[in-house]
Amino acid sequence: MVAAPEDLLWARGLHHEHEGSPALLDVCVGVREGEVLSVTGPRGCGKSTLLGCLSGRLVPARGEVWFDGVPLHTLPAPARERLRRDRFGWVGSEPHLLPELTVWENAALPLLLSGAGRRRARRTACEWLERLDVGYCARSRPGALMQAQRQRVAIARALAHSPAVVFADEPTAPLHQADRAQVLRTLTTAARSHGITVVLASHDARVAGVADRAVTLVDGRRVGADAPPPTDAPVRPGPEGRAACSLSA
Predict the structure, then answer these.
(1) pLDDT of 121
(2) Are 53 and 46 in contact (CB under 8 A)?
């Protein structure tokens, strides 16, 4: 299996189940550095499961996941945890902020956990909070914020430590339309100005429209004209005994 030279993150032949029900069936995908890739499809099609496998939160039952030359699918749990902390950011449909911390401390948490000084961590976190129009909330506790404000704080937290990849799983689900537009602008601007790759899952076609490319899942399978062939199809071996094909659409 050989990824395209520009692929920072790629996966081949992913299979995964939830309580015996198939969630991913032979899914292949590649993501380029600095690209915004949307994963679309109806609810329950496997979008969240795919992001979980690509980010190392889930280990696929079968298949490969590689990030920057590192095989996530074979890493032990502590190594995957360090990789998620240092190189990845995550935004879900719920912010999951720590109520005992202030807003800026929540946004700065990945920096603080990685050993950054408190002053630098606070300055960087507050810069992202300002970009998301919640800088005035920096000293507040999450409980004093509205849902849309808390979600913006969660997005600032995902971006503050300059990750290589941000995984955004329905990040605008709790937001009104105007808030959705600003959040999406921030994510896409970050991808282009800071070289951050964004993998964005959403069933909303308007959200997916901000991406550079889109892949579609239906019932756990990747569909569409750019979907790669199944892994049991004949392939020509490439270097290191892996199949020679690119996963980029």
Answers:
(1) 95
(2) no
